[in-house]
Amino acid sequence: xxxxxxxxxxxxxxxxxxxxxxxxxxxxxxxxxxxxxxxxxxxxxxxxxxxxxxxxxxxxxxxxxxxxxxxxxxxxxxxxxxxxxxxxxxxxxxxxxxxxxxxxxxxxxxxxxxxxxxxxxxxxxxxxxxxxxxxxxxxxxxxxxxxxxxxxxxxxxxxxxxxxxxxxxxxxxxxxxxxxxxxxxxxxxxxxxxxxxxxxxxxxxxxxxxxxxxxxxxxxxxxxxxxxxxxxxxxxxxxxxxxxxxxxxxxxxxxxxxxxxxxxxxxxxxxxxxxxxxxxxxxxxxxxxxxxxxxxxxxxxxxxxxxxxxxxxxxxxxxxxxxxxxxxxxxxxxxxxxxxxxxxxxxxxxxxxxxxxxxxxxxxxxxxxxxxxxxxxxxxxxxxxxxxxxxxxxxxxxx
Length: 399
Prior knowledge:
Blueprint: H1 25-33, H2 39-49, H3 58-74, H4 105-113, H5 115-123, H6 137-154, E1 164-166, H7 170-186, H8 192-214, E2 220-226, E3 232-235, E4 238-241, E5 245-251, E6 260-266, H9 277-283, H10 287-298, E7 303-309, E8 315-318, H11 322-325, H12 330-338, H13 367-377, H14 379-386
């Protein structure tokens, strides 16, 4: 038990010191409760009023020394992760375990490579607050727009998001897509820049629509379909409720109960490798799609298959391959059982790992030290987890 909680706030962005981050929303509310109406000015006054040196008694000095030791241990590569660093005391009674209320398949995939995501997003439920401008803005816009246009092309008449209805014929869907693309083109300036972007967007949408109709089966469809609340992921006997949304789902009946389901995910960026159960298990590659498939299986459907739709590179895995694909999740189950999570977060760079995996107010621990601490904490996993790329670092992906 804790009788006090210390909160910290980053004063500025670590990569751009001109971007002020404090007071953050939590600290703002504390200041508002104290009657402050201009939190930034209140922060500045407190900084000026803070003494350079505080005279303390021996008990206070001992407490400071204790916390100094905790801080130094956190940065010591020879010390394992402990209760003050990405660990908690495991409950001897399984019914008293601290478990995530609900996790997304994307979080499970990101946690495979870096258990810190499992700790911050999965267990604590923290969400990243990105302060930097989006990178690759045009590519992101194209992908988001392609998803929206494709949803409009295949959504059944009279159906809202996630509702089941008859799948439109391919010719009808192509006509709808053409009309939606024409409306998008008319809304942009008539110049070379937007003409070029329209050609790329239209080609991407047409290719993906063709892949959807050429793969899988089912005369009924739901667009932007949320997993039902009963969907779960079985982590070595630990059931975790799942929450996630698929781009498209096809079924042999109007609904999912007792159905043969085909789950689809559009890939609008760079071409990825084909889906592979072995690579999912070994590297966590496209693992979130395997988790969606596991969620569908947990519902008791008659059968399911998940598809990664890419222009001229569509691939899938079936339920028969699912156990192999989920074989790498034992480390996440171990974290929930033992309370030991750890971290393998890559160093923050201008284009490297997601800088917001950890709260911005924390002092980052170098990736080299995290790998050493992970090996000291989990020696049985060190070779498997740290030698995937030769140096233990993985390229950043979307979290």
